[in-house]
Structures are given as C-alpha cells and as structure tokens.
Amino acid sequence: KAFQLLKEKMDKGLFPQWVLTDPDIYELEKENIFGRTWQFLAHESELKEPGDYVTRWMVNDPVIVSKNREGEIKAFLNSCSHRGVHLCTADRGNKKTFTCPYHGWSYNLEGELIGIVAGNKVYGGEMDKGDWGLREIPQIASYQGMIFGNLDKDAISLEDYLGEMKWYLDLMLGRSDGGMEVRGLPQRWVAKANWKATAENFAADPYHVQTTHRSTVEMGISPEDPLYAGYGHQVVMENGHGINVITSKTGKARVPFQATPESMWPMFEKNLTPEQLDIQSRVTVFVGGMYPNLSFVSPIHGTEGHLHNYLNFRLWRPIGPDKVEVWCWFMIDKSAPEEYKEAAYRGYLGSFGPTGTLEVDDTENWARIVEVSSGLMARDKHLNYNSINNYLMGFERVEPDSNFQGPGTAYPTTYIDAIARSMHEQWFKLISEGVMMKEEIV
Ligand code: FES
Ligand code: FE
C-alpha cells in the first residue's frame, strides 16, 4: 500500500515528504536498496597484518572484515552458526581465531569452524564441521583501497556499479604514491535523521552551506558571497552517484592543489591524467556520494597560513526510518609529510565528527526534517525538487557544460537539484524493481 501511494506521487513527478519517516517505505528500502547495492565496509589501510579485523554493519547484518594469512580480505556474517550469537563485539583487533562466548565454538580467519568444545564427546564423529562455517558475505570487492560488500550474489560487479565515479575516485584516492590511508579510528554516533536526507545533504546540496554553516562566514573562514559554494560543477553519474566540484567565481581555488604541501604536487602530476590534474589544481572542495549511503568531502580547510586538505568518508547506516548511525573516516595521503597529516587531522576533528562545528549545524537540520515528516498533513505534502510550475533550482535553466573534463553530466553550478533528482530516480527504480520481482514470484 505504501508503494502504491508512493508510485502515484512519483509518476506525477512529485517527491512526497512522508517517505522520509514511513516505516513501510523503510522496510522496502532495507530489502530492495540495501539488500542489493554495494555497501562500504572498510579501507584496506585498516587491515594491515594477517589476522587484523574490523567489525562493521550492513544495515542490520553484522560483518567481520578480516585479512587472512594469504593477505586476502574476507567478510563474514558476525553471527555464530550454533545458536546465532553475535560472535565478535570488539571494534577491531588481531586474531587467529574467533571464539564464541556462548558455547565456545571457534572459527579461523577463513570462517571455517575449527573447534567445538567437547566436540567428539557430544556430537560424535558424524558432525561435519565443514557444514557449519560462518556465512560469507555473498560478494566483496575493493576499488582504490575501498572495500565494499554486497548481500546480493547476482548484483553487478563493483567496478560496473561505480562506473563513471571511478574516474573521480582515482583522482581523490589515487593522486598520491601509496594512495590514501585512514588515520585514527572511524568515529561513529547516532543522529536523528533519515539516511536519504543525510546522503543527499552531502552528495547533492552545496546550497545549504551558506545558511546552515553561516558561522564560518562570520568567523571569516568562508566568503560573504552567498553563491560561494555554488561555483564549479555538479556532476550527475549513473546509478545515483554524484560529485560537486566546487571552485570559486574565477573557476580557481584561492590556493592551488587544495593547499597541499608543494612537495606533493609533482606526485599528483605523475599519478593523474592532465584532465584530473587540471581539476585538482583548481578545486576548493570535492563533495559527493556513492549511492546509496556513502558520502565524501575533500575540502580546503582552516585559516590563512594553516590551510590543509583531507578526505572524509562517511557511511550513513540506517537504524530506523528516523535514525542513522554515522560512521566517519578521516583519510589522508599516505605519502604526505607527517606534520601535515597531523595538522589536517586536528583541523578535521574541529569541524567534522560529533563535536565538530560544521557537523552540529547539519545534524540540527536533519533532526528538524524527521521531526515534522510523520504528521497527517505531511502525507499530502511534496517537497521542492520537481518541475511543478517550473519552480526549479538551477536545473533546466542550465545546460550541461560539455567542456567539463570529467565523465558524467556536468552542470556549471552546484546550486542545482540534478544529483538529488537522480538519487530519487535511482531510489524509486530500486524499490519498484524489488516490488515487481516479489509480485512475479507471488
Ligand atoms: Fe556460539 Fe553456541 S551460540 S557456540
Ligand atoms: Fe553541511
């Protein structure tokens, strides 16, 4: 029924507000979106030695991601085969075996059941341990060090899924020798928010910056010009992915190469194509997302004389229609000078993360959206994304810029709802496909 109501609106080109907190829509999303798309698990730099592991979640599926003796990355459901207990509750560590706290069954780094307490005495010789290993995540793959999992064994490959986005990942993650590395631990916290709103806030919404983050203007960190986050390009890509390449009025950043140390620039020249290098030399902020729930921001940050650049990846793990667990990774060029890495890390902690100034600004708005989306009147209210009466931000008033150097459809402003609309299309497509599949089976 929720799907029928949704379909009526979407067919008319309307995006209704109630879908942000509706429990039935949320159930459809869990199965049809998160059950079938590639979910970010970890970065390879979090798993250095054989036996290193981290524990993560794919919405409600707990996952152990570990490195085996051969150096391969494995991912298992973090639930014992015996009675289902949550096997490993540590965030990370190094182990040869995972032993269940309930009855003591133990598993090796291949996920194989290798030990049963009093096994031969209570189970006899007939029990085949091979039948009772940990369940493997159906697909895992990595790109530029980013490890993803997919619960659908028939889903398209990660590379095909990322598609045009790979070019931008190569730029951000592959510009330096040795790539990027995670520094510190991923911070995580719970926010009152819907995952669609948080993902969209990052991937599709530089327009909020001048109002939500007004304090940065008042502190003199950001310019007065209300269009300042709108200069540059918004690039729409297949499968709901998108990136904003924010520059400035002149098409250049205040400082070249995002204020990275000059000693790093020859490395960028070596590792990037001329087109990527040109963008990297001019950009102020990259901000975008991989559908459905992985976002990133790579800013120039700080005050004059103390500017730095870093890459922040964040996963919006839905834990309900109106709650997300935010997972937030700080990443920096592995081969950057050590003191620069530390300065950038401190800058990041002051702005993003649970106590960061920018984070608090955003969190407040996300909470305000879900607070008011489950009332009766919200059921008949649509939001301003669509071309009703042509009240449209940027889009359709602006032609794509065919001179932009990167793949995707690039609009010459980031104050535009192009990515937001493509995310909604992808969202509705995945839900519809799932519902159709079910109907066929019935
Ligand atoms: Fe894990 Fe029994 S539930 S050993
Ligand atoms: Fe923000």
Automatic annotation (TrEMBL):
Cleavable signal peptide: none
PROSITE patterns attached to this UniProt entry: RIESKE, RING_HYDROXYL_ALPHA
Protein's UniProt keywords contain Iron-sulfur: yes
Keywords: 2Fe-2S, Aromatic hydrocarbons catabolism, Dioxygenase, Iron, Iron-sulfur, Metal-binding, NAD, Oxidoreductase
InterPro entries attached to this UniProt entry: ARHD_Rieske_2Fe_2S, RHO_NdoB-like_C, Rieske_2Fe-2S, Rieske_2Fe-2S_sf, Ring_hydroxy_dOase_asu_C_dom, Rng_hydr_dOase-A
Gene Ontology molecular function: any one: dioxygenase activity
Domain Rieske: 39-134
Similarity comment text for this entry: Belongs to the bacterial ring-hydroxylating dioxygenase alpha subunit family.
Protein name: Rieske 2Fe-2S domain-containing protein
